[in-house]
Amino acid sequence: MRATWIGVQGAEPDLVLAALGLEPMPGAPPGDWVEGDYSYRVFSGGWVVVASQQNLDLSADLEHAASTTD
Hints:
Blueprint: E1 4-9, H1 13-19, E2 39-43, E3 47-52, H2 58-68
Antiparallel strand pairs: 1-3, 2-3
C-alpha cells in the first residue's frame, strides 16, 4: 500500500481537485475522509489536503497542478 497526499493553502477545494484532474465524489460529505480512490478535507488556515491510498499517483500530477494554478 502506498499513501500519497498533497496540501494546498488558499485555494478552493473544487479548484484543487480540478488542477489534479479529479472531481468531487457524488454523495460524499464535502470535506470528509471517505473510502475510495482519493479523499480530501479542508483544514483551518485554508489548507485543502487530498490523500490517496491506492490507484492515484498525485506525485505525477503535482508538476501539472503547480503550472496551472497560482
